[in-house]
Amino acid sequence: MNKKFLFVKTFGCQMNVYDSNRMVGALAVHGYEPTEAPEKADVILLNTCHIREKASEKLFSEIGRLAKVRKKGSLIVVAGCVVQAEGKEILRRSPLIDIAIGPQNYHQLPELIAKYVRDQGRVIQADFPAESKFDNLPMLKTSPANAFLAIQEGCDNFCSYCVVPYTRGCEYSRPSKEILAEAKALVKAGAKEIMLLGQNVNCWHGDKGRDLGDLIRDVAKINGLERIRYTTSYPSKITQNLINTHADTPKLMPYIHLPIQAGSDRILKAMNRQYTVAEYEKIIADFRSVRPDIAISSDFIVGFPGETEEDFEQTLAVVERVQYASSFSFKFSARPGTPASLMKNQIPEEVKTRRLMKLQKLLQSQQRSFNESTVGKELDVLLTECGKMCGQLVGYTPYMQGTVVKAPKSQLGKIMRVKIIGASATALTGKILK
Ligand code: SAH
Ligand code: SF4
Ligand code: F3S
Prior knowledge:
About 35% of the residues lie in helices and about 20% in strands. It has 13 helices and 19 strands. Helix 8 packs parallel to helix 9 (about 240-250) and helix 12 packs parallel to helix 13 (about 350-375). Helix 12 links the parallel strand 13 and strand 14. The protein has helices at about 15-30, 55-70, 80-85, 90-95, 110-120, 165, 175-190, 210-220, 240-250, 265-270, 275-290, 310-320, 350-375; strands at about 5-10, 30-35, 45-50, 75-80, 100, 125, 145-150, 150-155, 170-175, 195, 225-230, 255, 295-300, 325-330, 380-385, 390-395, 400-405, 415-425, 430. It is of the alpha/beta class. The chain has a 6-stranded parallel β-sheet, with helices on both faces. The structure holds S-adenosyl-L-homocysteine, iron/sulfur cluster (SF4) and FE3-S4 cluster. S-adenosyl-L-homocysteine binds near residues 161, 332 and 335.
C-alpha cells in the first residue's frame, strides 16, 4: 500500500476531537499516516463546529489559508456540524471543498475518498444512516494517556439558542457492551484516564434502567484504568445514583462540568432550559454533600434576547454563591434556524461585550482563588503533554487544573505525586515528589 499523508484540524467540542481520532483510525487502515504539515498531506481534513457565528467563519478562512500551501492533487475534506447544518450549500460557499461529510457518516469516509478519486466529482454525504457509525469504525490502536470515549450523542432538549439538536440529531446511547470493549481497547493502547463524552452525557441509559452512574462503576473495574471523567452534563437529568458514584468510586475524578447558562429563571425559561436556578443550586449542594472538594465548572451565555441588567445581575449573583473552579462564557450568537434567533428583543453587541467582560472578570478571579487554594497541597498529576519549555511537562490534577512540572519526557503518560508550589488564574506549577 502506498504511504499517504493526512492533515487534520479540529474545531469545536471534545466530541469533535473524538470523532477526528476515529476518522484518523478509519483512514489509517487505508494507508494514511497523520502529519502536522498541511503541505505534505494528500488529504486535508477539517472537522467543523457550528455552535457560534465565529466558529463557522473560522472554517472558511482556514480553507483559504490551507489552499495556498497544499500540494497539487490533494483533497480538502470538510466534516462536522457545519456540513450537517449547511448541507449542499457548503459546496457552493467554498469551491475549494472536494468532499463534505456529516457527523453520522464518518464510517463512509474511506469509501467517499475512493469515489472522489474514481469519478473526480465533488461529493457530500450528510444523512442519518440506519447503521451506527460506531459499529463500523475500526478500534483505535494507539491512545493518549487521557482518552476520549463517546457514549452518547445528539440532543432532544432543543434549547432555543442551540444548533446541536439539528447538527447531531436526536439522542442516542451506545450499548454498554460496546462502550466497555472500547474502554478496554483504549487502556490497552495506553490510556490511563477516560473522559466519557456526550452532548448530554448524563442522559446516557442502558438496559433495565441503568444510568451513567452504573456505567461508570463498570468502567472503573477495568484494570490499568486510573481515572474516569464525564462531560457535558445537563442539570435536570442528574440522578442521585450518579451523585453517589462520586462517593463510592475512587477512580471517578472530583470534577463536574454542569452548565447553568444564566442565573435568571425568566431567561432560563426563554432558553427552554428545564430547571430553575434554585434546582440547579440544590444539585450542586447534593454533589458537595457527598464530595465536599468537588470542583464545579459551567458554561454561561450573556445577552440572550430580552436579558435585562437585572437578569444579568442574577447571573453574577449565582456565580458568587456557587464559586466555580473554572468556566466558559460566551456572548449569545443568533444561529440560523433556532427560535432565539427570531426573538424580537435582541441585545446590542456593545451591551453583550460589556456583560461578558464583567462576568469573565468575576469567573477569572474565582478560578484564580480556586487554583491558589491548592498551593501547598500534594496532588496526583497525570502528565499528558510537553510544556512550552524544554524539560517541562504538563498534566492535570484530579480537579482538572493544568499543572506545569519539571520532568523528563520519559514520564509522559504517568501519574506523579506533585507538590503544588504556584498558581495563576489559568495554571499551576508543581514539583514532582520522589
Ligand atoms: N449540551 C451542553 C452544551 C453544548 S454546547 C449543555 O446543554 O450544557 C456548549 C456551550 O456553547 C453551551 O453550554 C452554551 O453555553 C454555548 N452555546 C450554545 N449555543 C450558543 C449560542 N447560540 N450562542 C452562544 N453560546 C452558545
Ligand atoms: Fe444544545 Fe441545549 Fe442540547 Fe446542550 S442541551 S446541546 S445547549 S440544545
Ligand atoms: Fe460544535 Fe458540533 Fe460540538 S456545533 S460544539 S462541534 S456538537
